Amino acid sequence: MVQPMRIPLPFILFLAAFAIFGNGPVSAGTLVLRDGTTLSGELRLAEGKVLLLPKGQAPKEFPLDQVTRVTFAADPANPAAETTIKLPTERVKSTDKDKDHQVRRILAEYFEDVDFKKRLAARYESSSYIGWGSSERPDPAVPSFCAVRYSARIVPDRTEDYTFIMEAHGQMRLWVADKLMIDNWTATAHHLATDPIKMTAGQPVDLRWEVVSGRYGFSSHLLWRSPSVTNPWIKAEAFLPPTGASEGPTATLLSPEDGLYFRAPSEIVVEAEASVKQGKIAKLELVMDKTIVGEFAKPPYKFAWKNAPAGYHKIAVKATDDQGISSTSPAISIAISGSGKDQSLPAPWGEQTIFEKKHEKHPVGLSTYVDGVFTLTKAGGQIPDNDDECHFIHQPVKGDFTLIARLSSLTPPDAFAGPLAGIIMKERLSGEGRFASILVGAQSVVFSRKVDSWGKASNNERLQPPPPGAKSIDGGYLKLQRHENRIRAFTSHDGNDWEILANDRIELPEQLFVGLCAQSRSLETPAVATFDRVSLVQGAPEMASTAKGILFRTGTFLACDVSSVKENLVYYSRVGEKQTVPIADVARLIYRPITAELAGNVPSGQTGIMLASGDFAEGEVKEINYRVVISNLVFGPRTFNLKGTEVLAIFLKQPEPAKTRYTLTTADGSTYRSATLKIEKETVGLEDATFGALSLQMPDLAEIRIQ
Predict the structure, then answer these.
(1) Using one digit for the tens of pLDDT, what is the confidence trace for 282-327?
(2) In percent, how much of the chain has pLDDT > 90?
(3) What is the value of pTM for the model shown?
(4) Which is nearest to 310 in space by CA: 513, 601, 78?
(5) Hey, is 103 helix, strand or coil?
(6) Is 696 or 13 the better-scoring residue by pLDDT?
(7) Which pairing describes strands 197-199 and 160-168: parallel, antiparallel, or unpaired?
(8) What's the distance, CA 405 to chain centroid?
């Protein structure tokens, strides 16, 4: 008996897809139906219908009458499809990593006592010019007060007389070739020099010098000079390790990756490697902010770090060999957030109290979430006054976003206590870095931002005193929006009618931390802020125009480069060809993307210029070439440069598009409107109100909207 042949399900789906799709052009994308359903998969247009092949499912057909939108995924190989400008991710220079790549040949031994009997730690240093404050110790095992012995060999380039100079805050002494040359163990001098010493080119000479901490920190500078040496700094390459000393171990942190963000983790798995050429590894430790927080058991080195504290931390691993010499890996930065009191914050929101280093002993903030209301409590901090301290409920966001929140109450309404609360975007979860914020205080609302990591905050303030006798401050609705490198801040009483507070161009990294904050000038009286109706929408705001080009009065938009206007003709270039259109047919000349919100603020029928600041310069357009000149009765003629970033668009006439069933957007941002579509194997035919009969290639389509 013949057994029936079993055909695998994927092959059946392939046959069904081939029967429906044929060999016509297919593109990944999404389909939105009139009932709101969104479907994703491979799409193909056919006459009067859309064909969909969801992943792992049977193909489906949908008549165009059931569809409101067809969106095709951008083709990575087609640069024209990229209409959104992405900011470059800033790479922050890591001092720790730079130091690690330097040559380290000076053996430093740290002792608890000035008799050099109780050694605490040993490691190799890269320079003989060393110093640190009491809070910036080079190793977790080193106390703020210690004695240090340095050992190395030095190799001169030339045969001549050399003089060594020592500078230190405390006691110091120096041996050259086992001969004591500087002996100042009374701490009465801070700058001493040896007599000239004859040294031979290429011949190593033993050095040993000892230094004790000063009252406020540690400083040890060993310099030299000779007839040929004009720069007294000794290069790291001039040193060799001391004779017979171990080379020391190496340590490498494998995971987590640099820059990762953790929200209320139960544990963080840390993986590392350690090796040594001579001897063996005695121990491998996890270091957080220069404090030992754990020890790895044995190779392969893996450590489950439990109950990691919230904050912005630098972590590394420290390896120590059997001779007591240690080496620390380059430090990486990670951010850890808490989840609020009783773990009440809804994911992905996290919390952290952000301090400046000088204020790390200030009160820690608190946050809760109950029935849609966020409550933040924090004493200390004043961001507009360059005190980057606050309690921060946040989540990481990449790219564009819009954050809206209502500050329903802020107490106490006391200018002396200085309560502040609002919404903020920060570069880092630490008391440093760039930020932009809207903050409400006892008497005003302020847009505060820092455009340089090392700079100071600048503020736009608007007086907003509370009613007499008010027991709390009603901050109203706040909105912070990022679109590319433009930051806009708005306030509103009802969440519908928005008043712009600021519109700044700020260069920021792609990923930011965004959310709610509270702080108080007083360390005794905390600010207590409650927020509700919090909404964070990621992605670009609704756009009136996403590309530069010409918006016609019919509603058609042609992506192109506008060059000038002469004799009632608009000159433009598209795909390398120069062309013209009558200016009477043009509603707007678009030079940069415009949000729908900005475009909607322009009064109907008004002529003038939309500026990147959000302002609209009203007036009659007199000239357009590399600049635009407008004039009105109040200000007279005004000139704006079209080559810079100031002008977004020139408004000439009010667009009056007729109602059409289909709106087609192509990959370059052009938009065409048509009452009918003729879908063929490779093309879509339409009758555009401006350009008449057109035939668009299927791969060029980005979206079809159906009324």
Answers:
(1) 999 999 988 999 999 989 999 999 989 888 899 999 999 999 999 9
(2) 58
(3) 0.70
(4) 513
(5) coil
(6) 696
(7) antiparallel
(8) 22
Q: What pLDDT score was predicted for residue 75?
A: 54
296, 263 Cβ separation under 8 angstroms: no
Query: Tokens in use for 683?
Result: 């093309």
Backbone φ and ψ for 357, nearest 5 degrees, come out as: -55, -40
Burial class (CB in 10 A: 0-12, 13-18, 19+), 633: exposed
Amino acid occupying residue 671: T
What residues does 16 pair with on adjacent strands? none
CB 301 within 8 A of CB 293: no
Q: Which range has the worst mean pLDDT, 31-40, 165-174, 564-573?
A: 31-40
**How far is it, in rounded angstroms, from Cα 354 to Cα 310?**
10
Tracing tokens 């977004």 back to the chain, one arrives at: 648
H helices present in 101-147, as ranges: none
* Cα torsion through 383, 385, 386, 389, rounded to 10: -40
By the 8 A CB rule, do 13 and 32 touch? no
Residue 495 CA to residue 479 CA, distance in Å, equals 9
- For the purposes of burial, counting CB atoms within 10 Å of the CB of 110, is it exposed (0-12), middle (13-18) or buried (19 or more)? buried
Residue type at position 125: E
Query: What is the DSSP secondary structure assignment for residue 97, as one 8-state letter?
Result: H
Tokens of 658: 């007729």
Q: What is the pLDDT of residues 136-166, one digit of tens each?
A: 788 888 888 899 999 999 999 999 999 999 9
Give the Cα separation of 263 and 271 in Å (integer).
19
To which residue do tokens 């790479």 refer? 91
Distance between CA atoms of residues 67 and 61, nearest Å: 11
Dist. CA 274–CA 684, nearest whole Å: 63
Using a CB cutoff of 8 Å and minimum separation of 24, what contacts does 441-445 make?
441/415, 441/473, 442/413, 442/414, 442/415, 442/417, 442/418, 442/466, 442/473, 443/415, 445/475, 445/491, 445/501
Span 333-360, average pLDDT: 88
How would you classify the pairing of strands 205-212 and 172-176?
Answer: antiparallel
Q: Which residue in 310, 441, 410, 418 sits closest to 364, CA to CA?
A: 310
Give the side-chain half-sphere CA count within 13 A for 674: 20
* Concatenated DSSP letters of 9-42: HHHHHHHHHHHHHTTS--EEEEEEETTS-EEEEE
* Per-residue pLDDT, 19: 44
Residue 195's contacts (CB-CB under 8 Å, 6 or more residues apart) are: 163, 181
Torsion sign, CA atoms 135, 139, 143, 147:
negative
Angle at 222 between CA 219 and CA 228, to 5 degrees: 150
Contacts of 361 (CB under 8 A, 6+ apart): none
Condensed to tens digits (0 to 9), the pLDDT of residues 527-560 reads 999 999 999 999 988 888 888 999 999 999 999 9
Widest CA span of the chain, in angstroms? 109
Q: What is the mean pLDDT of residues 593-613?
A: 86
Q: Long-range contacts for 76-84 (Cβ within 8 Å, ≥24 apart)?
A: 78/667, 78/699, 80/667, 80/668, 81/667, 81/668, 81/702, 83/546, 83/547, 83/593, 83/668, 83/669, 84/484, 84/540, 84/546
The helix (run of H) or strand (run of E) holding residue 258 is none
Instruction: For residues 145 and 474, give the distance between their C-alpha atoms in angstroms, rounded to a whole number.
Output: 52
| Residues near 68 by beta carbon (within 8 Å), at least 6 away in sequence | 32, 33, 34, 705, 706
